[in-house]
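FW: tagging you since you asked about this chain on Friday. Here's the raw sequence from the shared folder, copied in full. Didn't touch anything.
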Amino acid sequence: MRNFVPTAVAVAVVAGLIAVSGCDSTTVRAAVKSDKERKAAPDFALKDADGKTAHLADYKGKVVLLDFWATWCGPCKIEIPWFMEFEQKYKDQGFAVVGVSMDEDGWTVVKPYLQQLKINYRILLGNDKVGDQYGGVDSLPTTFLIDRQGRIAATHVGLSGGKDDFQNDIQRLLGTSHTSVRTPGSVLAFFTRPN
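HL: got it, structure written out here
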């Protein structure tokens, strides 16, 4: 009985710290929607690291993994190598990864990060306007899978389910067979933007 009170206090303190820090262990992961449930993904005009403007419409006809992320986001750092692998593996099948950095310090922090990780897909610099277009992207990572017709087919918020969930959804949208199995014990977490 003596250990109960300190343990209960410790649990309450940890829960409070998690709530204050913006870290949450819940995630949102929607299965791939049926064709009739999909809505058009909002178009945007954002600059890449070379200063060139990119539009989502440029990718029509491809399956797109549109990832909202930031250099300070822990779960984003876990997902980026997966997305690099998907870009390499599926690019010849009509697939593209597009990352939208939501870093407030802009290219000053993003460009060195891209070079350090040798990211092999296009990165754009996002802003609040594009975040609002996609429902107010306050939690990172937030990733949308967009079908060949430019419609949102699935949404992943946080480190949802792991690499296999993404791969299964990508393969389904590409129309390829898949045999991936969900890995047990996946970490489920996401972070919100610091104030």
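FW: Residues 33 and 86 are 21 Å apart (CA to CA).
HL: agreed, and The chain has five helices and twelve strands.
FW: great, closing this out.
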